């Protein structure tokens, strides 16, 4: 019956609380009369008035002071203090009434005794309810340790009071001065006690409550915890907590940055804002993973006009609504001076691109629109070529003809010695910009005399964590479903970066461009995909099932390389990249064909793409892209 009471509607629970308090008020009045008169009292005469007036005075006072807004399972010291203030106010009103009326047979001291007894009874009832609800967490499905005994950890523990899904078993903290102390009744342990504690208490989850810890320290802690059979969680962002969208029990899986294995590249704020503040900026592919993050960061740099272009209606709608909400936010946001224009269009529509650039005169263009999924482009070579190559040519031509100052192409490490159509298409797009930058006079004349030639640049980086089609969301879905986690090959490796890193690199590189520049990021060592899968399984509190561990939770299944997939990727075709103003951004100048030699081959490639002639497309790619080696020559 008590357990079922938790499912009652809130109004019913409040009615039960009011009825209970009324009953306790009558009991307190009887006890007050009995103690004062030193007999087992039975009311008579005017004494009945006091019995009836007590609840009539108490109810409006208790409602006004919020006693019935509190949720018993989350009661703490604040709720008890509120109860004390409410009963004190009621007691003063009752005593004043008895002093004024001086009813015969009603001792005035009842106005003091009854509120004191009532406070004791109500406080006891609330405490017993809280203890019962708290005790139910002993059988909670998740036994939790909080790593971090600071303010965030203590607030989380307070929020967990009465939460049925988590049973707090203690804190872990690096500060030896806190070891042995307790917070809300939960003991604080040192990190060395973790293995024993996990085994003894049956810990299932460890929550990282370390908002001020450095990324290096978080990685060290995660590495230590990954050797234990626990799921590692993290708190929601402070923004989400403050907005009320989530609560402290809405714990999240580790952030993608925690899976990267290295510290994110710190941005240079001056480079981020150069070419953007007060400018008209166009982002193609604005609804995609990289494009949408570019838009968010560009908005913070305070352009005067931000043009969002995408061929997907829903993707464009989503990013426009998100950015519009940012601009409309009530706080003093510098982005509020920016105007957003959503443009539904395909970059392959040359006339549409020309009209957009003629009308809005963008000064900086960031070209993120592309087909990027290797197997999909391999199966649809003509569409991939037309979008990635001739879509780029369409936008860059409009940029040159209508006076854009800066044009940045988002490229990929798959353009280096490509084995797939997607990589080859991006390398041709790079070659076009390099060739156009090298021309003494661009083949496309400016629409207005005196227009300066735009600085054309390219940014090349590796795989982006968390983007659409990324391996991490795939692994998370597979692990949640019980496996297997699928990896194409045990030796396949990739460079990784986060979406904010990628967007920052694009903006900073564009600011450093001199014309024809190819920028790339020093991304550290590549990561083996199978190691990433094993790390994610471990951080989920599970074990990998293999020959050595046949009773593990999640199997890793090798499916074979997909069409066009390489074992490893490279960022640089040549050698000796040059440094830039940013210590982690490098500049490469790679060989390319002149525009006069490239243009006829582009026209032939356009014809093959329009004819949907895949063999002819791949034959031309072998001519145009040095190092292009299709992974499946039989189908080339």
Please describe what this structure looks like.
With 636 residues, this protein is of the alpha/beta class. The protein is 46% helix and 15% strand. The strands form five sheets. The protein has a nine-stranded mixed beta sheet with strand order 10-9-8-11-12-13-18-23-22, sandwiched between helices. Strands 3-4-2-1-5-6-7 form a seven-stranded mixed beta sheet, with helices on one face. It is elongated, with a radius of gyration of 34 Å. The model is unreliable at 71-75 and 238-246 (pLDDT under 50).
SSE layout:
Elements: H1 2-5, H2 10-37, H3 47-64, H4 77-101, H5 110-135, E1 142-147, H6 151-159, E2 166-172, E3 182-183, E4 186-189, H7 194-201, E5 205-208, H8 215-225, E6 231-234, H9 238-243, E7 252-253, H10 256-260, H11 269-273, E8 280-284, H12 289-300, E9 305-310, H13 313-327, E10 339-344, H14 350-360, E11 364-367, H15 374-379, H16 381-401, E12 406-412, H17 421-438, E13 455-461, E14 463-465, H18 471-480, E15 485-487, E16 493-494, E17 496-498, H19 499-512, E18 517-521, E19 527-528, H20 529-539, E20 544-545, E21 554-558, E22 578-579, E23 585-588, H21 595-610, H22 614-624
Parallel strand pairs: 1-2, 1-5, 2-4, 5-6, 8-9, 8-11, 9-10, 11-12, 12-13, 13-18, 14-17, 15-21, 20-21
Antiparallel strand pairs: 3-4, 6-7, 16-19, 18-23, 22-23
Helix pairs in contact: 2-3, 2-5, 3-4, 4-5, 12-19, 14-16, 16-17, 16-21, 18-20, 21-22
Quick take:
By secondary structure, the protein is α/β, with parallel strands linked by helices. Helix content is 46%, strand content 15%. Mean pLDDT is 79; it is low at 71-75 and 238-246.
């Amino acid at each position: 019956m008590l357990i079922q009471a938790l499912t009652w509607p809130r109004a019913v629970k409040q009615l039960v609380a009011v009825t209970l308090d009324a009953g306790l008020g009558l009991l307190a009045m009887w006890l007050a009369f009995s103690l004062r008169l030193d007999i087992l009292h039975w009311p008579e005469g005017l004494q009945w008035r006091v019995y009836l007036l007590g609840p009539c005075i108490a109810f409006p006072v208790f409602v006004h002071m919020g006693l019935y807004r509190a949720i018993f399972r989350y009661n703490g010291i604040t709720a008890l203090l509120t109860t004390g203030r409410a009963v004190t106010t009621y007691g003063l009103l009752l005593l004043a009434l008895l002093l004024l009326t001086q009813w015969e047979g009603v001792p005035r001291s009842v106005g003091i005794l009854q509120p004191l007894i009532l406070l004791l009874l109500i406080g006891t009832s609330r405490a017993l309810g809280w203890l019962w609800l708290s005790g139910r967490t002993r059988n909670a499905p998740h036994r939790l340790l909080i790593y971090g005994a600071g303010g965030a950890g203590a607030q989380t523990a307070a929020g967990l009071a009465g939460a049925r899904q988590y049973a707090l078993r203690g804190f872990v903290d690096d500060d030896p001065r806190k070891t042995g102390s307790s917070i809300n009744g939960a003991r604080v342990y040192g990190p060395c006690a973790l293995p024993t504690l996990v085994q003894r208490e049956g810990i299932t989850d460890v929550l990282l409550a370390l908002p001020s810890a450095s990324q290096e320290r978080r990685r060290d802690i995660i590495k230590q915890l990954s050797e234990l059979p626990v799921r590692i969680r993290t708190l929601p962002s402070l923004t989400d907590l403050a907005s009320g969208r989530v609560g402290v029990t809405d714990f999240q899986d580790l952030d993608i940055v925690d899976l990267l294995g290295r510290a994110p590249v710190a941005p240079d704020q001056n480079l981020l804002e150069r070419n953007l503040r007060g400018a008209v900026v166009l982002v193609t592919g604005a609804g995609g993973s990289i494009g949408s993050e570019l838009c968010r960061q560009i908005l913070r740099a305070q352009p005067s006009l931000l043009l969002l272009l995408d061929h997907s209606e829903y993707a464009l709608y989503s990013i426009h609504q998100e950015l519009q909400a940012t601009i409309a936010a009530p706080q003093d946001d510098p982005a509020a001076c920016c105007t957003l224009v959503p443009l539904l269009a395909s970059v392959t529509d040359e006339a549409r691109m020309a009209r957009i650039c003629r009308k809005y005169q963008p000064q900086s263009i960031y070209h993120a629109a592309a087909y990027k999924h290797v197997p999909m482009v391999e199966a649809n070579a003509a569409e991939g070529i037309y979008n990635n190559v001739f879509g780029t040519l369409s936008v860059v031509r409009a940029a040159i003809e209508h006076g854009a100052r800066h044009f940045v192409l988002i490229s990929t490490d798959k353009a280096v010695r490509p084995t797939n159509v997607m990589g080859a298409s991006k390398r041709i797009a790079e070659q076009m910009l390099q060739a156009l930058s090298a021309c003494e006079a661009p083949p496309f004349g400016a629409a207005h005399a005196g227009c300066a030639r735009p600085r054309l640049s390219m940014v090349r980086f590796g795989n982006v964590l968390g983007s659409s089609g990324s391996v991490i969301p795939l692994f998370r879905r597979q692990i949640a479903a019980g496996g297997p986690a699928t990896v194409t090959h045990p030796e396949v490796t990739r460079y990784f970066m986060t979406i904010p890193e990628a967007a920052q690199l694009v903006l900073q590189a564009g600011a450093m461009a001199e014309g024809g520049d190819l920028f790339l990021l020093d991304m550290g060592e590549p990561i083996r995909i199978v190691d990433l899968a094993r790390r994610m399984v471990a951080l989920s509190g599970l074990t990998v099932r293999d020959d050595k561990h046949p009773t593990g939770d999640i199997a890793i299944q090798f499916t074979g390389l997909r069409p066009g997939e390489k074992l490893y990727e490279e960022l640089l075709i040549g050698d000796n990249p040059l440094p830039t103003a940013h210590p982690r951004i490098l500049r490469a100048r790679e060989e390319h064909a002149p525009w006069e030699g490239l243009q006829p081959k582009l026209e032939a490639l356009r014809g093959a793409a329009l004819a949907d002639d895949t063999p002819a497309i791949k034959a031309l790619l072998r001519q145009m892209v040095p190092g292009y080696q299709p992974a499946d020559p039989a189908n080339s």
